[in-house]
Amino acid sequence: MRSDVEAESEVAASNDVTELKEMNRIVGYVLRRAQLALFEDFARRFKGLDLTPAQFSTLVAIRENPERRQSDIAAALGIQRPNFVALMDNLERRGLAERVRSGADRRSNALALTLAGTALLERAMAAQAEQEAAIRARIGEPERLRLIDTLQRLTGI
Amino acid sequence: MRSDVEAESEVAASNDVTELKEMNRIVGYVLRRAQLALFEDFARRFKGLDLTPAQFSTLVAIRENPERRQSDIAAALGIQRPNFVALMDNLERRGLAERVRSGADRRSNALALTLAGTALLERAMAAQAEQEAAIRARIGEPERLRLIDTLQRLTGI
DNA sequence: TATTGTTATACTCTATAACTATA
DNA sequence: TATAGTTATAGAGTATAACAATA
Fold first, then answer.
1. Among the CATH numbers 3.40.50.10860, 3.40.50.300, 1.20.1260.10, 1.10.10.10, which is that of A48-154?
2. Threshold 0.85, pTM exceeds
3. Cβ of residue A79 lies below 7 Å from strand C
């Protein structure tokens, strides 16, 4: 025999709460919601650093690939070349990164971090490490590594 | 002793390819790239149906929560009320969903699918099932279920 | 006085065409 | 003729303030 609690929760499910059971079985939807949550968390943590995810990833990519061409960095990050111009303008205006006309091919810019850019990136990496730690606390390190691996396999879809 | 191939690939790694090893250790970045890949895949599969992810999720949510208020559906999907108006205008203009002034509270709209909306959603669910199948083929069903679970835990960050 | 749906608006992100300077 | 960086621009998505109708 069914308890009153069960009957009540059934009524609640069908009358009070807006259910999204179907959408929550779809990887694309759940992935989108998780991504938005992580971006909001990122925004909170990076408030004082004044860096967007795109700006942060650009600094990281430049440090890991010093002297590489502007187009190559943009392409690696999946940013359209035209849209990357304003982003670099901003980083350069703030003295975080610089464009140097390449001697070999004077059409291209070799990108590099400034000392200030390196210093800010140091603080940004620390803030990012805190997000990773929060994720680790929530799902555990093995699951965090597994998640990264699974998502990378999914990216080739 | 190192082979020529190993030496060559090392040179390539440090000189030819733009590396993103650091970013690829960050959950937020990998998640973002996977999300974009899935949205592109969605766009390909839904080309003929002319439904964006937001429109698709709206149809699904209305079917699962018939007669619910417009604001409740929007809130459940994480869409701002003002932005939901144009989305519903579009679905209504195409005869897929309808707004009915509620008798109980005449400020609110009760949303429902039309027959055409139900029929289109049928086809859309089939297209979506194909994406899930593609994901399943790529990472396996246990990992797909585990991914959904992990992402949902991450969403509460 | 508060809430639902709506309008207006602004801001960010993203995509494409076309220019310039170099090659 | 092609490429790197740039400009201009348009479209989508998203966020906030304020209004009319209703509670």
1. 1.10.10.10
2. yes
3. yes
